Every structure is written in C-alpha cells, then in structure tokens.
Amino acid sequence: MSVSTTESIPVEKNFLQEKRGHSGIWVWLLSTDHKRIGIMYLVSMLTFFLVAVGIGVVMRLELISPGETIMGAQTYNALFTLHGVLMIFLFIIPGIPAAFGNFMLPIQIGARDVAFPRLNLLSYWLYLTGVVFALLSLFTGPGPADTGWTFYAPYSLRTGTNVTLAVMAAFILGFSSILTGLNFITTMHRLRAPGMSFFKMPLFCWSLYATGWIQILATPILGITVALVAIERIIGIGVFDPVKGGDPVLYQHLFWIYSHPAVYIMVLPAMGVLSDIIPTFARRTIFGYKAIAFSSMAIAFVGYLVWGHHMFTSGISDTSRMAFSFLTFLVAIPSAIKVFNWIATLYKGSIDIQPPFLYGITFIILFSIGGLTGLVLGSLATDIHVHDTYFVVAHFHYVMFGGTGFVFFAALHYWGPKMFGRMYNKKISYIAWSFLFVGFNILYFTMFILGYKGMPRRYYDALPEFQDLHIIATIGSWVLVTGLIIMFVNLYRGFRKGEKVGMNPWGGTTLEWKVATPPPLENFHQIPVVEYEPYYHERKEEEK
Amino acid sequence: MDQPMDLAIEKHFDPIGARIGMWLFLFTELLLFGGLFLLYAIYLNKYPEEFHYGSGQLDQFVGALNTVILLTSSLTMVLSVASLQRNNRKLALFFLIATFILGAAFLVNKYFEWGGKISHGIYPGSEELMQHPHGEILFYGLYYTMTGLHGLHVLVGMVIMLFLMYFITKKSHKAFSLPSEALEKMIGSKIVVTGARGKKLWESQQISPEVTGIELKIRGVVTDSEIRSNLVKLENAGLYWHLVDIIWIFLFPLFYLVAM
After folding, report:
1. Which of A38, A58, A182, A228 is the least buried, fewest Cβ under 10 Å from its Cβ?
2. CB A525 within 8 A of CB B7
3. What is the interface pTM, i.e. ipTM, of the complex?
C-alpha cells in the first residue's frame, strides 16, 4: 500500500503530549482520542490479567498436595469463579479489539478517529463501572460468587454468595462490548480513506468487522440471561427455577447462545493480528487474502450455531446433539483455511524472526493443538468421557491463552513500540518467550492427560492417582509465571526508557507504519489516498 | 489525485453514520427482547392451559387502550420528525411534547394495571402466587419481566425526548467582548438601546472604572448544521420510539389476547 502524502510538518506533538486543557488523570479519563482510550483499556486489562494469573497460580498451588493445602473448598470455588470472570469478561473479551483495535483500526483504514469518539469513551466508562460492580461483589454482602463464570442455574439462584452483583457486572461489561462493536462497524463503513476499499483493508480490520457483528448479535442474549438471573434472585420470577416450573437447561441454552460466539469474539481478532504480523516478517504479501477475510465472516456465522456442544451431557435430545456436533465440525473448516493460508504465506518468504513473529507463530502451534482437541470434545462419544474434566480446561486454555493470549503478547511486541515510541530489549523477549512456551506446555498439556484419566474440573482436591501429574502442572505454572514476569518487566522498561524507534521498525506495509511514532493527535495531516493492497511488499524509495 | 480534506470537513457531522449506529443498536434491543420471547414461546408450549387462564385474568381493555396510546404516540413522533424536516421547530416541539404525554399516559395505565394485580397479591415471589400452578407463576413472571423491561424502555424514550426538547428549543447566543483599550475610553459613558424613531428603550448605568468587560450577546441564528444535527438526533429518537412501539405490538397479543 502506498500513500501519496508527504510528512511535511517537522515538529509536532504526538498524541501523548497533547493534553487538550485537562490535567492529571483527566487527560486520560476525559479523552475521546481513540489512541488514549486504547491505552487505557490496555492498562486496565493487563492489571486484571495479572490479578487473574495470580489467582490461577494460587489455585495450582492448592492442588500440589492432597487434602487442604492452603485453602478450603469454598475459597477455591470463589477463586476459580473470580479467575474465570476476570479473565473472560475483563481481559479476553474486550482484549484485542478494545486495546489494539481502538488504537490501530482508525489508523489502518486512514481515519482520524472512530465514528463515535464520545461513545467510545462511554464504552470505557461502562467497562470501569463493570469493574466496580465486580469488585463490590467481592467485598460486600455474603461473600464472592462461587458458581463458576458460567453462573449455571439453579445453583446460581440458590447460592448465598453475592451472585447478583457479579451478574450485573457481566451485564454492564456486555453493554460496553456492544458499543465497541457498533462503533467499529460504523467506523469501517463510513470512515475508510479514499481508495481504501473493503478488500484493501488490513486483515486485522476484517477480523474486527466480523467480531463487531458477533458482539452486536450475541451479547444482548447474555445481557438478558444474566439480567434474568439477577431478577430471579431479587424477586423470584421462576423462569429458570425448577421449583416454580422453570427449566434450568434453558438457562444453559441462552447462556451459550452468547458465550459460544463469545469464544470467537476472543479468538477472531487474534487471527487478524496474526494475519498482519506474518506478512510483515515473511516480507511478502499474504496468501489468500479473500479466503482469510471470508473465513472470518464464516467463523462468525457458523460460530453462532454451535452452542449446543457445551450441553451434550445436559439432557438435550439426540437429534439436536447430532446437529450441534455436525455444526461444530463445520466451524473447524474456516479455522483451518486460515492456518493453511498463514503457512502458505511463510512458504518461500524471507522470514525474519523478530519477537512479534515468534510470539505470533506460537499461536499456530498452540491453537492447532487446542483446535484439534476441540474436535475430540465436539464428537458425541468422546465428549461423554471427557466432559467437565481437565481435558476441557486444557482445551480452552490452549485456544484462549495459547491462542489469543500469545497473540496479545505478539501485538504488544509488534505495536507497542508504535504506541509508546520506544523499543524493548529483544534478547530478553526471546528468553521470556522460551519460559512462556515451555511453562505453558508443561502446565496445560499435563491437564490433557489428567482429564483423559478422569480428573474432574473445579475440584480443590484430587485422588492420589492424579497427584504426580498435578505436581508437574503446578511446576509448569511457576515456569509460565516466570516467563510472564520477565516479559512484562522487559516491556515496561522498554516502553519507558528503551531506545527511540522510527516510523517503521519492522518494515510493515499497512498504514499505521506510515504515520509518525507515536502517532500525532489526529493521525493524519492529510487523509491518505490508498492505491495498493495492504501487504504490498515491493520496496519503494520511501522505505524508512 | 489528492483530495485534501481539512479537519473541519472531517469533523463534519455524518448523518448516515449516525443512522447506521442507531440501526445496529436497534438490532441489539431486538435480541435483548428476543431472549424473553424465546422463553415465552417455550413456556407457552409447555403450559398452554395456565397461560390461557393467566391471560384471561388481564384487563384486555386497558391493554387495548395502551396499544392505541402507543400507536398514536408513534404517529405524533413521525409528525414531529416531519415538522423538523420542514424546518418548523415549533410544530416539531408540539408533537414531541404530545408524544411525551402519550408515553406518560401509557405508563400511568401500566401503573394502575400492575397496582391492581399487586393488591390482589399477584406478583413474583408472593405467597398468593406460589399457591398457583407452575404455569401461572411463569406466566406472571414473564408478564412482569417483559412489560417491566418494556416500561423501562418507554421511560428511557421519554428521557431522550426531554433532551431533544432542549436541543430543539436551544438557541445559542454569540458573545462579543469589547477589547480592553476600547473599554478604557468608555469610562464615564453610558450605553443606550434605541427603538424606532430614536425612542430610548434601555439605558445602562454609567460605566465606572470597576467595569472590567462589556459583552454584546447576539441571539444566535440556528445554523444549518445545527438543524441537521438535531434532525438526525430526532430521527434516531423516533426510530427508538417505534421499536418500543413494535415490541408492545407483540407483547399485547401474547399476554392479553392469547386467551381469546
């Protein structure tokens, strides 16, 4: 993609120096600049990510020896609930779209901001409100929720813990997510630069487009479902309560109608980031641009119809189980299309293994393991055996953490220097990566074996025959956390004090590499006219 | 080939974008209620007799009256939009207020309807209702949830209308200040406003040295862009109001007429 603008104004403020008359924290909290909002999301999400990682480590520690090690069953129940709620609702669902999408989407399509900047800020405030509700649910009332992040009825209706506030938090966070999706879709329809047709958009934008539709079409169902749980707990309308004639399985249906598509809210943007990173470091254009773009839409569509595979053991009819199983297999096809396209892009490319690339391609390995074990879970016969075991836990950590989590780190390494204008120490990021990769596989691959042998999920204790494997997994968690600490310290130091970087440190071809680092307040002095494909790598004299 | 677009144009209000955003939001509202309609469909199928009985207990007349009220309010909303399109702000405001009053009337009816049921002990979780069969508990559970959520939407719509009344009536005043050098020369003088044939309408006090500024406030003419921006806001509010109306169109037969 070539751009016919000249960077003519030499000295100007970047967006971090532009304060617009506010001071202190208000510079951030009142800013409608998509870049500042993106960074606010990034910082908030990483905070909750680290808290949730801490909880995960403590849970692993509990399982290192038989019996009660450092906490009782009730505490363990509250912790796995909190771990899930934080990781899912506060980290990985807003995740890549809210942080990197907000920052990069307008720049990548050649716009000065999103379509509704104030609505964007409102989304962030709603996110913060959701956070406040989640925190209140911990420290007020009869104690933190102990239902698991799924809030399954009828237990969520009966438990004495503070489920009402926790589901309100989920409701508000859902609203925030809807508004972000709505904003992005409108932005992509209305604010593309001249020449930037839909098929010249970087694939990250395509993935955000597909994600936006899922956010809009699936999240309201979660909203009404958790709202009904809250209403049920407050006044008792009976819709999910068997005592009053309601059907708890209906809760599961409604919950998964949202929460399965939500899996694609989490993973599609990661696939988009990867589709941007791979051409940059393979120094050639992406293979099968349209196939990747359409497979995003296909995943979004088919992903809407597979929720029943979470309920194979919940007592639904055989016909619907077979239908859902078939559809689940179907959704593997577009995912595989993407993987093959990425591999084909790498083939005969001149690959430059920089940190973002390394973290990025880890996705392909770990996501493939997670995806293939997903097919084990999607088949009816095998699912009966491994349902609600550690096999499931391992599966979704492979796709969510191994997939989306690693790409999130890749995005931090890829776009971080652009956002903050400074480079981290690359050697240390390679070291961090090896700890992460090794620790991750020790921790979660062990869980596949545990689950296959029959270790159920959500137990704070285990039978003696599982003990050896639990010890291995716990050791893996320590290695993983060491890697995380090294990585985050390195990034933090780098972004604060590292070497300054120029406009295009990686040789990227999309529009964000054609503006200053860090970008100026409204990104472009003159809206660029786009003439080339997003990953056009023919070297031109404008290089650097 | 460059088409320079300066900031002012870029920031220029985008009516199509605003409409796209609103329609997307309406999808989410439909799906929000969709979850409840799904529950209704399933429980109606499971407990047809109790739903039939429960429906017979509701007051069809009040339901029909509320339907008429909401349909009329949709009409006045459309008329308000049409008036603003023809740049008749007063008429637009009149129809907007009419819509607001009809919305309030709907809620008043709803209040008495709910109040009547509650006074008979028919409300979720009441001892009286718990004696009834399961299907009826669910019927009333859904009745209160769905009409309650709908009522909340009516209320939100009315709040939005209040904002729009403000936007439509608001006329910004433009202020011009005299430069301070000019001010010094005016100490000791007066400012006089004259009408036809030199008639003195108003006279200021003598300007003393304490006066630090003189401002001339000119009643702002509503600019074209303001009108367009208000129009899109009103249209979007209208879309929202029609959605609220449509949802009621489905709630009315499902709860009131299913027994007939």
Report:
1. A58
2. no
3. 0.90
